[in-house]
Amino acid sequence: xxFETTIAGSLPKPSWLAExxxxxxxxxxxxAELEAAKIDATLLAVKLQEDAGIDIVTAGExxxxxxxxxxxxxxxxxxxxxxxxxxxxNDRYKAMVPTVTGPLKLKGRVHAAExxxxxxxxxxxxxxxxxxxxxxxxxxxDRHYGDQKTMAFAFADLLNEEARALxxxxxxxxxxxxxxxxxxxxxxxxxxxxxxxxxxxxxACRTAxxxxxxxxxxxxxxxxxxxxxxxxxxxAIFPALAASRIDQVSVECRNSKVPIGLLGLLxxxxxxxxxxxxxxxxxxxxxxxxxxIEAAMQHVPKERIVACTNCGMAPMRRDIAxxxxxxxxxxxxxxxxxxx
Length: 340
Ligand code: ZN
Hints:
Elements (H helix, E strand, L loop, with lengths): L30 H22 L3 E3 L10 H4 L2 E14 L4 E14 L5 H9 L4 E7 L1 H5 L3 E2 L5 H21 L4 E5 L7 H15 L6 E5 L7 H8 L12 H5 L5 E5 L17 E7 L9 H12 L7 E5 L8 H22 L1
Helix pairs in contact: 1-3, 1-10, 5-6, 9-10
This protein binds zinc ion.
């Protein structure tokens, strides 16, 4: 089927689980109650996507507080008590980040509970998201490895261990989120893509990478103001991504200053075309979504286009996010009718 639909990853959490409309939102429960509530919210996220008509659904990232730290919490060698303030994404924002103090090792499975719960309750294809190694390495303070590349490859091995387990759980697509990829373009080509391939090595399922200019939060909006009228950062990394072993690339297109022609550099890849703006509360019409797909079709073979959101929807209002899911599915259906 042409123009299948999926989302970048996250959906807003219900207000009984975490404080709404907030990144890093504090949990509202604790202990066993919290763990049960995370699973309840996961099933709700899957159901909302199914009912909206999304083809490849996700667990909605309901079980993690933040897309990077959800993974780090299960890693040995990281000191969460000893947090230091660090400018991340090339000093775009300050964050209190944990410290790597020793050799990195997984304490056990990271996402088994929510992955298995989602798998047990949907017959649709299921995508699961993990942070990418370069982005993780940019979101912790290193007091052990002494070299960012070495540390990123250590994280890549851990990611690979969890990714292989997720594939055994029945996950169909594993996506690594690498927002650091449009910040450190030189290192992306030198080692970022190699680290990503290490994380995705030997996976029986499909693999994807989501690169993006970030959620619609103020620090990102201010940063985007400085990038000029056309965002050509991807020009430097798409050829190497096209040559990589990753199957799919997720890119923002709706209301984006990324010149759509750059998608043509992703030869041989499935392109997850962001047709829903997550930085705006204005709900796209199906016509808007079909128009974004049509624009992408000028540069990507239509068989390789998957309709997607620009980025995660975690910080959005729930009703708006749900309406946007419906618009995405209806817009893809319209495009199918029109261009199929
Ligand atoms: Zn994103």
